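User: Please run a holo structure prediction.
Assistant: Happy to. Please share the sequence and the ligand.
User: Here you go; the ligand is BES.
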Amino acid sequence: MEFLKFSPTHSNEVNAIIVPVFEDYTPDFTISLEKDSLVLTSSKKHGFSGKKGESFDTFDSKSGKRILLIGLGKKGELDDERLRRSYSSAFGVLKSIPKGTVQVILPEVSSSEAKEVTFAIALTAYEFDKYRSEKSKIRVERVLITTKSNDTVIREAKAVADAVNYTRDIANLPPSVGTPSLFEKTAKKIAGVSVKAFDRKDFLKLGMGGLEGVSRAAKESAKLLILEYGPKDRKPILIVGKGITFDSGGISIKPSEGMDEMKFDKCGASAVLGTMKLISDLKLNKHVIGMTPLTENLPGGNAYKPGDILTHYNGVTSEVLSTDAEGRLVLADALSYGTKNYKPSEVIDLATLTGACVVALGSNYAGLMGNNDSLKNRVKKAADRSWERVWELPIDGDFQDQIKSKVADIKNTGGREGGAETAGAFLSRFVGDTPWVHLDIAGTAWTSKNGSNRAYLPAGATGYGVRLLYEFIKTE
Ligand code: BES
Ligand code: MN
Ligand code: ZN
């Protein structure tokens, strides 16, 4: 599907128009449309009043165009998210027009509206239909955005949405396909990014006991990928994503119900690939390192066991109480290797780390933890801009006490209480003084409810994190 800025020469090709209407205000375009078609008058007769969530779908026989009026509610209450949700639902109504060209009218025709609406529609047009014989019903081929701004914002928003959809495509892969080797192959195809790959031999040689332990019973060979982009003469930003390509829990095996969803335990790593691709596509002038510790977590005769003690890259030892708390063990090695060898200005990790975070914050907020107020604030700002929302959780001394071990430096679970925070406290031991933020994306990385309340988040991987990281990196 292509996105272009609308120009009057396109007029004859347009099959349908999305037109905004407020309860208490009528945008200019809507007024001029009314003069030609009386569409507003007839919509009023049929009970449409511009309330949020209402729509009126009609056909103008004079112009031969389908017209979809969408209610945006009160003008003063309009924000970016209402805009995204409204236009994404509207596109859902029109998506099956064969070879369709849809013209999109914006309330203020401003550049930020053009950006948000392009983004939302491009995300709505995503479906993971690779393994389905009934393919996606999206037939619209062109979306023409009517805006006063130039088309660079449209191109930027399309690139961001493409990167989110690319991330979704990787994260949605079945666990026997979306393997560490597949990640390596995919990463090596990203133009402008160099890729280093460590395997089990390297884990042993370098003393990465977490990656070594968790990957011991893996059938697919485990990898730690290091992607690098941009000018090397300045300190990099380091982003790290948890890449458990399937989390069975290992010897501390999970209940079988819902275990299929643990194919999504690679969403953090998928978002790192998507972000690296995006900053390279848009040629940001930033130095960025992306790291993805990748392995499946399986039981087996040679699997690591509860009671085992692992020594991580920085020498810290951890007692394994549950082989299902594997994410922190592999992240420990990635974080300590990355901070020591690349001396980044800051580190952000993304991980589907704890069920406790989902219980605490639900599916619209990621848990944010960290060791540096300035970095936390900058990440919160990027989260506000991208509507990939975060909520801070504490990881102070009491949580550190909770993970003290009698036989090792720390243990990999702190019990049921404060499960997201003890996991964050665990990770904090592997970044030293480097400013660091951890995002627990267990609740936000995928959705099982079709549509949720946002048409632009279809069931499956959401691609959470790509836009937030992009907004962060761009403004650093
Ligand atoms: N990948 C899971 C976390 C998870 C669970 C994400 C459910 C999304 C939905 C992680 O590896 C895990 O199993 N965590 C355990 C930790 C516990 C054993 C301390 C958990 O949350 O139960
Ligand atoms: Mn687990
Ligand atoms: Zn996991």
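Residues 164-475 form a domain with the Aminopeptidase fold (CATH 3.40.630.10).
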